[in-house]
């Protein structure tokens, strides 16, 4: 196949439904509320999570600076490198709770920002936030309507609850990446960008190759605010090509 030829588009598969909302979050965000409660009467995993948060300098910094989560620093680093958020841009955030990325997008000049999550997201001035399963038919169009047209930037920090079975957990992660990538490819304006959470060392089911066929450049970044022991990385797809 020559470089000018595009691989045929796959027919859009029936959207996968997320069967249940995350269990580790709160109404104020994915596991990080306005205050971190004591570990009394919590499960061992919850107690361990709280200890990590209390000992985490990025979480301390986020609370001190008014960011909803430490993830805000991940997006800021990515944006510092690639200038994704521009004055007047339209941004959609998938898996937005507790709202740190929405805060960053607005702070850096985005004109319209819409976020969706299974968990409720506390109001952020200037942002359009909905509690819904993104895979439900019609939610994608609702997000586009909220920002007034095609996005300039699609962000995805969506994550499944893990069940401890490595292969099953991996397949769920890949399914979310596929769903977010499909949405970005379908809706982004030409020249737009896409950022999604991924993980090192695993088969991405062809998603990365598909992104490379629709964007000028795809980069892998591990932000400093990602936990050192985590395999978490972010794919940054730049300059969506015209179809």
Q: Regions with pLDDT < 50 over 5+ consecutive residues?
A: 5-39
* Measured distance between first and last alpha carbons: 17 Å
Arrangement of strands in the largest sheet? 3-2-1-4-5-7-6
Largest sheet: 7 strands, mixed
- CATH class category name of one domain: Alpha Beta
Overall strand count = 7
Tell me the name of the CATH homologous superfamily of one domain.
Answer: Vaccinia Virus protein VP39
Structure characterization notes:
- By secondary structure, the protein is α/β, with parallel strands linked by helices.
- The chain has a domain at 72-240: 3-Layer(aba) Sandwich (Rossmann fold), CATH 3.40.50.150.
- The protein is built from seven helices and seven strands.
- It has helices at residues 44-54, 57-65, 71-82, 100-107, 139-147, 166-187, 207-214; strands at residues 90-94, 112-117, 127-131, 153-156, 193-199, 215-221, 232-240.
- A seven-stranded mixed β-sheet has the order 3-2-1-4-5-7-6, sandwiched between helices.
- α4 (100-107) links the parallel β1 (90-94) and β2.
- α3 (71-82) packs parallel to α4.
- The longest helix has 22 residues, at 166-187.
- Mean pLDDT is 82; it is low at 5-39.
Describe this structure in a few short sentences.
With 243 residues, the protein is of the alpha/beta class. It has helices spanning 44-54, 57-65, 71-82, 100-107, 139-147, 166-187, 207-214; strands spanning 90-94, 112-117, 127-131, 153-156, 193-199, 215-221, 232-240.
